[in-house]
Records
---
Amino acid sequence: MQKQLIQVYFDEYQGINTLKTQDAFLLQAAREAITLSYAPYSKFQVGAAARLINGVILKGSNQENASFPAGLCAERVLLSICSSLYPGIPIIDLAVSYHNQLGESNKPISPCGICRQSLTEYENIVNHSIRLILGGMTGKVFIIEKATDLLPLGFSFTDMK
Ligand code: THU
């Protein structure tokens, strides 16, 4: 038996003002996408914005449903928009922000487990990593080099070959 270790580095910034211009722009776009959120049940509004390799910026937001499991996170709404409008075109960067109507929005949130799986699938099918920019309406910002970093030992189609 051998113990194995999985480590992940990420960059922590003190706020949006300390980001590179392009990253700050995308996080701001994610914040703007929050206004398109439909979250009457959780009151937790999430916005996401993607920069494609061709320079196009696309936005998505969480869309809830009275039948709770039918709701979709902002990240997966955005991935569907990207792959529907620009199939096969890599996403270079993807920013996520949120507004918690019932509490604070001053620290980064990171994608849920299902979204991590979907982000990883996207990376695999277009053969390009997705760099994540995570921040609230204020406060620190985390930058993670690739979505797969958040899903160590994940399952993918290569495992089915
Ligand atoms: N949500 C997202 O859209 N993205 C995340 O990364 C975390 C959670 C949504 C799902 C649900 O509509 C609400 O936030 C509360 O969980």
---
Amino acid sequence: MDVKKIYMDADALLEGHFKLSSGNHSQFYLQSAKVLEDPRTAQLLARALADEIKESGLKIDTVCAPALGGLIAGFALAQALDVRYIFAERVDGVMSIRRGFEVSKGEKVLMCEDIITTGGSAMEAAAVVKELGGEIVGVVALANRGFCKRENSDVTTKPNCKLPQNIPFFALEDFTFEMYSPDACPLCKDGSEAIKPGSRGN
Ligand code: ZN
């Protein structure tokens, strides 16, 4: 599956000057919402991920996604895996599980994001699931921004990766774009201003 082509065809691989949720700047941004606005594409990607996960033999009870980014991918993946689906959300900046969702002791939970960069949000949500008694058995994303090593890829783990090394990480593609801290960003040095993706029409 050519995930890069899917993002390009959906005008979801943006070029410009972006401020990422980590605070770093980048010339590129993957706007997964544009890919997932077509439910058939969402299902296609989710089925490909589900196949890879099933092949690995991983046992899963539930998919959990951190809102907002992981919501659609998580739902589609849970459907493809035919398992339960819950989500975590930020309340006053703190990741929480609400809406009456329960997690049983020992429940095997797969964390799902649209894009994993360092895995920070996924692991924040994972900590809440663990507190409730769940067991995190894996992490999955449509695409990997290249900080963490996914299953079946040569891209190596970088120090910024926050995903634990003892659980598998699945993704369909590696996108290894350069990222800069704001004070070392060449785009800032050229005088342009980083924008938060999702604002100003993108
Ligand atoms: Zn910049």
